[in-house]
């Protein structure tokens, strides 16, 4: 948050407001969205970054949904849909006032989405039938659904002028993503992997500032055409489309539309 605040100031962000929201609770999301849109102001960027990490126990929200899938994806879907009018209002402003950059929704995904079990989305997305809950599997699936949803959103929202993308900021061990893990594991992640050793051995490791830089680029600079899942292969470098297994899935129109419809239904939008 501090890194994004510093970057936001340098990027010319005019104002910011704070509020609390539980993304696993649809009532909380609706209240937050109503408060955010109450002044009728246009919204230039919606950056959706909250995530419940791993390891950890299974938790359910009031609807019986897996809390990781709800917090990491479904809550974002609902919030984006509720704030869509504010984003489309920004599209009506002169391009010069926006430095020529279109209003947009940026989902913070993860490279782990590439190794997700996409068939699990069809079989048992909330792991209701699973004998043993797998928090890592849930996290991967939530980030894959986010990337697929963002790809379909680019088409569905294009008529209103709003752009959409999912971005992987890289592996940022210094965050609290593994906050529910054993203390020794948390120490190793933040102090070793997050330090010089980790960054030397693992080229995809990023500092908090480097991860924030990738997100700010996605929020404030023109997005690559026809690309919905992006990353910065080099810290501080330009954003490029993700390739490989998930990239192929993003080209599967049937799967994208299936994830899109399921996400809207599960989020309570329709």
**Radius of gyration (Å):** 18 Å
What characterizes the major β-sheet?
A: 5 strands, mixed
Which range does the strand content fall in? 5-15%
Spans of at least 5 consecutive residues with low confidence: 1-11
What is the overall shape? Answer: globular
Distance between the termini: 32 Å
Question: How much is the average pLDDT?
Answer: 82
**Care to count the β-strands?**
5
How would you characterize this protein structure?
It is a single chain. Helices cover 46% and strands 7% of the residues. By secondary structure, the protein is α/β, with parallel strands linked by helices. A 5-stranded mixed beta sheet has the order 1-2-3-4-5, sandwiched between helices. Helix 3 packs parallel to helix 6 and helix 6 packs across helix 11. The N terminus is likely disordered.
Considering the chains and any ligands shown, give keywords for the structure.
270 residues; 7% strand
Brief overview:
The protein is of the alpha/beta class and 270 residues long. The chain contains 11 helices and 5 strands; from the N terminus they run ααβααβααβαααββαα.
Secondary structure: elements and pairs:
Layout: H1 2-10, H2 26-36, E1 45-48, H3 67-82, H4 84-91, E2 104-108, H5 118-123, H6 135-156, E3 163-168, H7 183-193, H8 196-201, H9 208-220, E4 229-231, E5 240-241, H10 245-250, H11 253-267
Parallel strand pairs: 1-2, 2-3, 3-4
Antiparallel strand pairs: 4-5
Helix pairs in contact: 1-9, 2-3, 3-6, 3-11, 6-11
